[in-house]
Task: structure prediction
Amino acid sequence: MVLSFRKATKSDVIFIVEMLADDALGQLREAFGTPLPQKYYTAFENIDSDTNQELMVVENEANEIIGTLQLTFIPYLTYQGGIRAQIEAVRIHKKYRGQGLGEQFFKWAIHRAKEKGAHVLQLTSDKKRPDAIRFYEKLGFKATHEGMKLHFKN
Result:
């Protein structure tokens, strides 16, 4: 399957949120519905206006959105003023999973991170997603650090 990668547009937001909500964990945290809540469009505008953010979609030959991810480029002083790339919200549409498309999307993301001068590409994965963790390990990602989060109530 020939894939094309592009930055997401406002009209893609509904398809992206649908993919984000389409699993057990996503159903708990997303509010996918018609109409889509305005907060998603506001978040998109914030992401789209930030030059260190790249919200991406991948399309098949029929221009159907089959995946999404967000790359964040974090400039910092350590590593001699290096750039750290963070990959988040990776999804392949359920009817296209298991066909190697996620691997192609990650290869694209790895290339993009290198192209932007990042010295590392990092990600987190919920411990409740063992299949995803195995997938990331197969791609060469290693659990080198212990991550922690502090959640706030809205």
Remarks:
- The longest strand covers residues 65-75.
